[in-house]
Amino acid sequence: MGRRYLSLALLTEGASDQWFLVPVIDRQITELALEAPAGFDYAGVDVGECFTVAHRDLVARQVTDLLCYYDIVMIHHDHNERGKVDAIRDRFPDDAHRIVALVPVRETEAWMLADPEALREAAPTRDAGRVVPGDVEKAADPKAVLRAALGGRRDAERDFGRLGQTVALDALRKVPAYRAWTAELRRAMEQLRFL
């Protein structure tokens, strides 16, 4: 019997979330693959066509399509929109275990603050050490803190992508919402017998 292939799809609130989350997801899956007794192949997460801020029916149609082709569909929302993920899951009772919520507290930018070293690398001229990694979700306005840490630069695609590639997963694991996401992802992978 050959190795299995894990396929993942991601729906996010917006494009800037994708720039950070896609490399983080790929790195986290690569790490989880080391725990798989039989191993599996994985070529990276694919991004869906609609954003999760779209009307719930449109998001549900996109999830319907993705569940036909992907083992796991991850739905990203900021914490204040958590109910949307649960409402989508309710529409797919037979496949709810294949729908994984990726829900940072406040905003995705809080996760980008988790590793001061990665922030210093992204913006070497700024002091990025003002946020304690495990407390990043307590920041009232993570976008403003991140903007200040990056020196007010406006090249979000490059900076967010670079942070997604360099943020230490150990630092992210200190963030409660990140741990919740990886625990849910692990459960889905176990139910599908990848782990």
Automatic annotation (TrEMBL):
Matches recorded under Pfam families: DUF4276
Tree of life domain: Bacteria
Name of the protein described by the UniProt record: DUF4276 family protein
Organism: Streptomyces incanus
